[in-house]
Structures are given as structure tokens and as C-alpha cells.
Design goal:
heterodimer, A: 200 residues, mainly alpha, Rna Polymerase Sigma Factor, Chain: A, Arc Repressor Mutant, subunit A, 10 helices, B: 173 residues, alpha+beta, 3-stranded antiparallel sheet, two-stranded antiparallel sheet, 7 strands, 21% strand
Amino acid sequence: MQNSVVAQQVLSLGDNALVAAYLEGNEVAFEVLVQRYQNKLVNYINGITHDYDRSLDLCQDAFIRVFKNAHRYQGKYQFSTWLYRIATNLAIDELRRRERKGRFFFYNVMDLFQSGEPSVPLPDCRHCPEKKLDQKEKADRLEVAIGSLSEKYKLAFVLKEVQGLSYAETSRVLNISLGTVKSRIHRAKMLLREKLAGVL
Amino acid sequence: MSCESVLKKLTEDLLSRFDESVAAHLDECSDCRSCCEDLVELKYLVQSSSGKHRVPSEFESETLNRLAREKPSRFPSFRLVAVCATLLMVTVGIVYSWEDETGIEEDRGLFIAAQDLQFESDRFEIRPSAEAEFVEVVVEETPGNTLILRLPSVIEIRRTEVSEDYHIADVSH
């Protein structure tokens, strides 16, 4: 009974208070933070790396790194900003490691077909409901299109538009100015509009 | 208002399409209107497609187990401290010994500090080991009791220490 009351109290704590509680030895606080962010973080990393299994590993790495260094967290920015920054660095490392190793992912194969103008452009189905792409196909096309963006546009777009961070948070996670975030997201959206011609 | 500035406003915040100046431009410019429609559709598509992955049920417990295994110590491990201390002290001893051979110092000695070992001795020898990157330091710990330390053949000390008895500056051998 007493344990469940304590658990309820922990659940209601904000992120910073949970970090503080963890540092004071409350292991439940860490569990709550993992529960709170695990799905978001896996989807974020997967949005960058397009490798779900690897995203799970990297998500776990991010949590471990965060909590091994929890004593360094100063609470100046939101906990999520710190967590996303660590996850971003891990995801970027993963992309660069792949580049170095020249690993050949299915995703890259798709990318080759997507480079430049599509050879067989999808028809514009906006005004013909019977031919509309189903939601699954659209989501797949979106994933491929986001994945084909260059790293700088992809990171800004995924953080702001997919993960729902504010411009200010995105700027802090990526350690770039607000103006640069805005211009990258503008460029990313314009590129996605081109890549998704026939889907939107 | 130019198309470029309208599109910048729209990509920054789609709600700006309801601003008077932007709305007026969209009424007149079909290209920007089409772009605005696509951006609305893109936003909808992103929102409806994101967050589709759920972590497996065992993810949380695996993460917690891994954290428990990797939990950092607040202090450097005693083993590490002991090894560093040993390396430093043995190096001091070696330098001490070399200086003795050149006649600069009259005394020679080896100081060892490790986990369950702390002593000094003037009865030791350094000999090559089977592997080039290691040397063996043979020490007579107590009469009749010999200790063999296997140490890297190259030891660097980047710090400079000066004491009454010896002087070490960027030593390597």
C-alpha cells in the first residue's frame, strides 16, 4: 500500500524532479523516465537511422548514458532537451559509422531509386478518391522521403515536426541558432513537398 | 508580400495562412496556395504517421538491468588507483636506479604501492620478458621471498615532480 502511494507520487513528478530523485537513490524515478520517453525516443532515432532494431539499442544507450551522467545534469534546460541531444549524437554516430563501413541497407537501395526525379512519378490522387494511396503507403513514402534528406535537414525536421519540440528546444538540442533551425526546416519542407509530389 | 516571404511564414507556422497579409497573397497566388495546401497535407501526414513504433515489453527491464550492471562508481576503482600507483612508484624506482648507475645518486630503491602490498626495497633487477612490450622487475620482497612484476617496457610520466631526492621530467624508457 505504502509502495503504491510512493509510486504514484513519483509518477506525478516532473522530469527534473525525477532526475533529482534518482540521484538521491530512488530507482523508481529512473523507471518512470524510461517509461515516459522510451517510445518517443525509439521513434525519433528510427526516424533518423531507419533501422528499428538498431534504434532500440541506441535508445538504450541513450538512457544509460543519461543516467550514468545524471550528476552532471544542471537542469538549466529541460531534461528532454538533454536526452534528445544525447540521442541525436548517437544517431549521427550511427549514420557516420554506416558511411565508413559502407553498409548496404535496404533503405539505401530505396534511396537510390528515389534520388532525383522519380522515374515513374506517382499520379496525383488528390481528386480521385478511388485511387488514393492508403495511409500505410503514404506513411512509407513519407519515411523514405524524410530519410533521403541530408542529415542537417532531417534532424531539424524530425525534432521539430515529428517529435513536436519547439523551435527553441530544437535549437538547443542541435546547438544551432534559432534562425538556422527555421531555415533548415523551411528547406526540409520544401524538399519533402518535391519528393512527395503525387502523395500529398 | 513576396512569394518567398509568404512561404517562409507558412513553413514556420501554418497558422500564418490566416494572417491578413498572407491570406491576401494566397487569394491571388495559385502557386503559393497550392504549396500551402501541400504543407497542410504534409503536417497531417507527419502527425498521423509518427510514433508508430512501440518498444517491446522487455525493453524497460533490459534497460534497467543494463543500468544496474553499468552503474558508475562515485570514485575511481581501487584496482585502477593501485595499478597507477604501482606504475608510478616503480617508475620512480627505476629512474632512481638509473641515476644511481650514472653516479648522480648514491642510493637506489624501489617503491611499490598496490592493493595489499606496500614496501620498498633496494634489492631488485629489471630483465627483459618474452614479450618486447613488457619487462620483468624481480624484487626481493623479504629475504627468500621473490616477487616478479610484469610491467610495460615503456612508461611515460607526463607530470614533472621535483623532490629533495630525485627529479623526474617526462620520463620514458
